[in-house]
Design a protein that fits this description.
Order of helices and strands: HEEEEHEHEEHHHHHEHHEEEEEH
Distance between the termini: 51 Å
Helix content: 25-40%
Number of helices: 11
CATH architecture of one domain: 3-Layer(aba) Sandwich
Number of strands: 13
Strand order of the largest sheet: 5-8-1-11-12
Shape: globular
CATH class of one domain: Alpha Beta
Structural class: alpha/beta
Low-confidence stretches: 13-23, 340-374, 376-408
Strand content: 5-15%
CATH topology of one domain: Alkaline Phosphatase, subunit A
């Protein structure tokens, strides 16, 4: 079990040949959140800047972060245009590379894995790739593989990174739970070490430790409740001679309440960053062509079907719900102290029928580490020179709806 940032123990990441400076520098992180099938374009906007920024109904959950929110217009993914919607505009959302139709997968390495290849050696896990919906197989009517609809993280041009959809397995990988260790609380396994540590750090660090350990234990309890469901699903799949990936929720062991599933995966991402187990994370909240339902939003249709009426009030509620998940994770990260600032995150969220939102967090100097967001909202081309002149973000891509494509 690794530690969060402590003022008394200023060490980050794994030991590296470059020495102490590399190990103690505040880490830079990247996270991408993805939602498939598009947004309600009538309610995806912002006006003004800073504390006076006016947010649309859909973006209102981000109101607490107004002072650190950038709404970006003018980002365009050219290789995703002209190939129909869905898989042809999803599999390259983090690479910007053209995709190949047919049986052979071919695209490009995604930006999260480019970063993992560069900074992953400083952490236990180079990257964390999670999802809240099982991948789908087969081919779309456009002759693109459905693998493109299910995966946004690609370790090479022809190989997606396996996506973990079970919270218990993601948690176990994060905290190295193996064998009978899964039946014993993580905190019990490190109790003696924690007792010794508490006597050697400051009072403020002891407060941080208490908050951190309470957070770990709370997530652990929720994971334990789901662990039994996952085991039972594995038994059912074995008895039926079917892979779990082909079974429907909750028979496949995934939480029946998607709200709990998504919050828990956000919590695991937050813990992964807080403990510096990884500095690169990707979370697919719902895939392209999603079949998730939202009875708690009073929406009768499944996500993909609802997106066909994307300007409806019911679809706006779906979009706002997902922005709420982003705000939840942002709040978790914002509350984690790291010296004189907070956890820095570069975040990207792609909304459904082609719309992408990307949030990039970059600290302006070593003394100020705040959570910054950038939201891509329009669709037209931006020159590289214009992107290079922007001070608080690099670039992002948002795919336009096939019905209302706007370019200039």
């Amino acid at each position: 079990m690794t530690l969060p940032w402590l003022e008394s123990v200023r060490v980050w990441g794994a030991a590296t040949p470059t020495g102490e400076a590399a190990a103690t520098a505040y880490p830079q992180r990247f996270a991408a959140l993805f939602v498939g099938n598009g947004i309600n374009g009538d309610h995806w906007w912002a006006k003004g800047a800073g504390a006076q920024m006016e947010l649309s109904k859909t973006l209102e959950p981000l109101a607490p972060f107004r002072n650190r929110l950038n709404v970006i217009q003018g980002l365009f993914n050219r290789p995703a245009v002209g190939f129909g919607i869905h898989p042809g505009q999803t599999g390259n959302i983090l690479s910007g590379m053209p995709l190949m139709k047919g049986a052979v997968l071919r695209g490009g390495i995604s930006m999260d894995q480019v970063l993992a290849n560069q900074i992953g050696q400083d952490t236990v896990q180079p990257s964390l790739v999670l999802g809240c919906e099982q991948p789908i197989t087969g081919y779309h009517e456009s002759n693109f593989s459905m693998a493109y609809s299910s995966h946004i993280s690609w370790q090479s041009a022809d190989s997606p990174v396996p996506m973990e959809v079970y919270p218990s397995l993601a948690f176990d990988a994060l905290f190295e739970n193996r064998g009978d260790q899964r039946t014993r609380s993580i905190l019990d396994r490190v109790r003696d070490d924690l007792s010794s540590l508490s006597r050697s750090v400051s009072a403020e660090d002891n407060r941080r430790l208490d908050e951190y350990l309470s957070s770990v234990r709370e997530v652990e309890k929720r994971v334990d409740r789901m662990r039994g469901d996952t085991a039972k699903a594995a038994d059912r799949a074995r008895d039926k001679g079917r892979p779990m990936v082909t079974m429907k929720r909750p028979d496949n062991g995934l939480p029946e309440d998607i709200r709990e599933h998504m919050r828990l995966m956000c919590d695991i991402v937050a813990l992964a960053f807080q403990t510096d187990k990884t500095r690169v994370a990707t979370l697919v909240l719902c895939r392209d062509l999603s079949g998730l339902f939202y009875p708690f939003l009073n929406v009768r249709d499944a996500h993909h079907s609802a997106s066909h009426n994307d300007l409806s009030e019911s679809y706006e509620r779906i979009c706002r719900y997902y922005v709420g998940n982003l705000a939840y994770l942002a709040g978790r990260l914002d509350a984690m102290p790291e010296g004189d600032g907070t956890v820095a995150l570069w975040r990207r969220r792609r909304t459904a029928s082609g719309h992408l939102t990307r949030r990039q967090l970059r600290r302006s100097d070593a003394a100020v580490r705040r959570l910054y967001f950038s939201v891509a909202s329009e669709t037209f081309e931006v020159s590289r020179a214009a992107l290079n002149s922007l001070p608080t973000f690099h670039c992002g891509v948002r795919r336009s709806s096939a019905r209302r494509q706007r370019m200039s």
